[in-house]
């Protein structure tokens, strides 16, 4: 099996093209191949598949074997993969995901290779029960939850996959390992949840660190950056366009007033190709 190792701001993936549909053993394969000591090492395993509605379809399996509905950094990697490998000769393409349907993307190129990718991530889902959470509110803003004596207030946003955004004084040094897993698996979240810890520095810039559902601490999370921007607008903390600064680098996120869609712009990188 040929694979390509890629990343979006250090959120890294094993990308596989050529299957007609998701292999039955995709979950076990993801656990094995994503292992950073006994496998290739990655946050997820990504399949590029045929689509009847878009140019391509993407399915993403987290390193714990769970399938996610959507993945912002991975969809930029898929767009770069198909362009750089000549599977498409346009810079305007569409990729279908389970969580957000057909997503238009625009590539900018450097020396004939895709450099930046701007993705229409669709409209955020804000109804608490649809994120899903067990909180029957629309939207869920600043909902309190106590864990081991510490109180957190989260805002819930789905980009096709679920997110809880929590504002803290120091996001950069936040103890993800201590609090991430307990929030990820809290009973408030029926399908578990990605947790973003954010510090708003201005109306145009937010520091964010993420504990991802099914993958743990990653260097970046595209859908998490989108959820953080949406949450920050809902909480009156930022404008509708802002830079979300993650451990692996910056993503530029816009929440359009015209179409209510969230647009994410960021890089994607091919590191190496391999054979299994
Ligand atoms: N762990 C996430 C999927 C990957 C999302 C993230 N890597 C991104 O870039 O959006 C989930 O289970 O919802």
Automatic annotation (TrEMBL):
It comes from Cohnella thailandensis. One of its GO terms (molecular function) is diaminopimelate epimerase activity. GO terms for biological process: lysine biosynthetic process via diaminopimelate. Belongs to the diaminopimelate epimerase family. This is Diaminopimelate epimerase. Substrate binds at residues 11, 62, 72-73, 161, 194, 212-213, 222-223. Pfam families: DAP_epimerase. The gene is dapF. InterPro entries: DAP_epimerase_AS, DAP_epimerase_DapF. The record marks 163, 212 as: Could be important to modulate the pK values of the two catalytic cysteine residues. It is found in: Cytoplasm. Homodimer. It is an enzyme of class 5 (isomerase). The active site is at 71 (proton donor), 71, 221 (proton acceptor). PROSITE patterns: DAP_EPIMERASE. Its EC number is 5.1.1.7. Pathway: Amino-acid biosynthesis; L-lysine biosynthesis via DAP pathway; DL-2,6-diaminopimelate from LL-2,6-diaminopimelate: step 1/1. Keywords: Amino-acid biosynthesis, Cytoplasm, Isomerase, Lysine biosynthesis. Catalyzes the stereoinversion of LL-2,6-diaminopimelate (L,L-DAP) to meso-diaminopimelate (meso-DAP), a precursor of L-lysine and an essential component of the bacterial peptidoglycan. The keyword Cell membrane does not apply. GO terms for cellular component: cytosol. It catalyses: (2S,6S)-2,6-diaminopimelate = meso-2,6-diaminopimelate.
